[in-house]
Amino acid sequence: MTPLRHLFSPVRIGTMTAKNRMLMSAMSINFGVDAKGHVTEQLIEYFVARAKGGVGSMLVGGGAVHPTGLELPDLPTLWDDDCIGALEKMTKAIRPFGTKFGMQLMHGGRQSYHDNKVAPSPLPAAAVVKGVPKELTIDEIHELAEAFGDSAKRCQAAGFDFVEIHGAHGYLINQFLAKNSNQRNDDYGGSFENRIRFLIELFRNIKRKMGSDFPVGIRINGSDYIQDGWTLEEALQLAVILEQEGADYLHVSAGVYGSSELTIPSMYTQQGCFVHLAHAVKKQVSVPVVAVGRIKSPEMADRIIGEKKADIVALGRSFLADPDYPRKAESGDLARIRPCIACCLGCIHNVLALEPGSCVVNPDVGREYLLKGTDRADESKKILVIGAGPAGLAAARMATIRGHEVMVCEERGHVGGLARLAAIPPGRSEIMEIVEYFKNELDRLRVDLRLNVALTPSFIQSVNPDHIILATGSLPEMPIIKGLFQTKMSLCSVTDVLEGSTATGNRVMVIGGNQAGLVLADFLAEKEVVVLNRKKHFAEEMSSNDRFYLRERLKRDNVKLYKNVSIKQFLPDGAIFSSGGEKIRLQGFDSVVIAEKMTPIRKASELFEDTHIPVHVIGDAKSPRILMHAISEGEDIGRAI
């Protein structure tokens, strides 16, 4: 019996019962549809993997009810009957696993990525999406209400168990609800009653066409977190009305494009950040209420249910990271859950860049239809992995699962590589969770992991491997800038500072405005810090969501950021540089820290030049990049050998 008794108790939602209280949120994953917007095997197998993992209910994200409302180019379309056949194939594939399967009905409004946007008022989105939408006429509003009902009817015909109306996150319905996006002077604008009219009309249209027995939930914002946006007070009023209208559940989220609290929050945000909004709504209604917002630990999820802050918890990115999350949680095997680290890079960042969604810690996302499990190798081989950073650990795990005999050696006394250092600055500790996951997996699989190993020819000979995986990582590269090595300031690298091997003075100059440079500035922010970024943009390798919170943290009087910097020369206690067409001279600094380029560490490869052992170079040892590439290359080579 699982100790998470609240989380794994069944829940009644209208006429259906979900086997547990975990809902996989609708996520616009932006893959798995054909040229007509009909779902393909790629999307089907993506959901099958999560249904197999034991989630109680889950939603397909971004089902567009009308051509004007297609949020992203590669999402399911629901506006004609041709979609039903492919959707039915998907629901039939899910049914054997006992997961209740729903479709989220949405219209992107002014937050759609196309040129035919429509909205309540001709006002552009506050951020992300550009372009002024066309103002909807009364007849067009009525047409869209019908489109919601017709799309819901198609979902019912395709075999879905329920539908969810997307009335949150700044999309069309939310645009009608909020004063800052709805400036109409007719029956659909102005008063609270007028602003909710579109939602009520389309809800009634759905119920009329589908019958009162088919479960219909509604996702609303508890707060838009933007000036003149939808408020919690209004959400509480609406919740009561929606219950009276026959809503079967209320899913309470937050945020719009451009809000001060992002809908997809990064690791800088407190876990459970929107639960208080769901709790407030739950006090007003008797229908099930869904809480969402960085709920990643099963213990937290169970506690939210047990404390009656919500009836159901919605997780999105956690199920990207690990489709088997529910099964592992129910069995009490929590250490085996592959953790979402809330970097936002593979998921929302990719999607908003109009790329297929993925996951930094789980390279299988979107490839489930190609992989369909991990086959055993035809022949067991002896593999030596050199380096216990994320790439090496991922490779060792996968190779062991496939039946190979694996040894991992690391010259240092700890695992993690640069990820261990990346987890040290404020708000970044969750990065280390993926390292701990891989370490736990190697312990479980009884992989021979050796630390403090000096790599020598005799050691290689004693191991006698069939394959070598070189995952030795990278180190900071020192730039050549006039006067840098003559300055009297202490000179060190970002890794020196984070490792604690070098202390800085009270006035620090950081060379580099990438992720490493900015998180280092945050790490040193109790001191006076100046960041000199020789590029046009800051931290381009971070997701925009993650970078947003970091940039907010760096808005301090004692931290100054310069970009487009051209360093003319270093002084004994500072530097002369230009930025934004201005020549600047800074003096009185104690330390200069290099946080720019990284260079691969491949010295160990020299040991194998005279051997016939195949050497596979992965991760930063191949080319310094991001964590996603390290893990992906590690797992891929583990599958390939």
**Helix percentage range:** 25-40%
Oligomer: single chain
Q: Evaluate the radius of gyration.
A: 27 Å
CATH topology of the largest domain: TIM Barrel
Provide the spatial order of strands within the biggest beta sheet. 3-4-5-8-9-10-11-12
CATH architecture of the largest domain: Alpha-Beta Barrel
Supply the number of helical segments.
21
Short descriptors:
single chain, 641 residues, alpha/beta, TIM Barrel, Rossmann fold, FAD/NAD(P)-binding domain, 3 domains, 8-stranded parallel beta barrel, 5-stranded parallel beta sheet, 27 strands, 19% strand
Any overview of this molecule?
- The protein has 641 residues and is α/β, with parallel strands linked by helices.
- The chain has three domains: 27-371, TIM Barrel (Alpha-Beta Barrel); 382-475 and 599-640, NAD(P)-binding Rossmann-like Domain (Rossmann fold, 3-Layer(aba) Sandwich); 478-596, 3-Layer(bba) Sandwich (FAD/NAD(P)-binding domain), CATH 3.50.50.
- Strands 3-4-5-8-9-10-11-12 form an eight-stranded parallel β-barrel, surrounded by six helices. Strands 15-14-13-16-27 form a five-stranded parallel beta sheet, with helices on one face.
- Strand 23 and strand 24 form a beta hairpin.
- Helix 1 (41-52) packs parallel to helix 2, helix 3 runs parallel beside helix 6 and helix 19 packs parallel to helix 20.
- The chain starts with 10 loop residues before the first strand and ends with a helix.
Strand and helix layout:
Blueprint (H helix, E strand, L loop, with lengths): L10 E3 L2 E3 L3 E3 L16 H12 L4 E8 L19 H11 L5 E7 L11 E2 L14 E2 L2 H20 L4 E6 L4 H6 L14 H4 L1 H14 L5 E8 L8 H14 L3 E6 L20 H8 L6 E3 L6 H9 L5 E4 L1 H5 L3 H6 L14 H8 L15 H4 L10 E5 L3 H12 L3 E5 L8 H5 L8 H14 L3 E3 L6 H7 L3 E4 L3 E3 L13 E4 H6 L7 E5 L3 H9 L4 E5 L11 H10 L5 E4 L3 E6 L2 E6 L2 E5 L4 E4 L3 E3 L14 E3 L9 H14 L1
Parallel strand pairs: 3-4, 3-12, 4-5, 5-8, 6-7, 8-9, 9-10, 10-11, 11-12, 13-14, 13-16, 14-15, 16-27, 18-25, 19-20, 19-25, 20-21
Antiparallel strand pairs: 1-2, 17-26, 22-23, 23-24
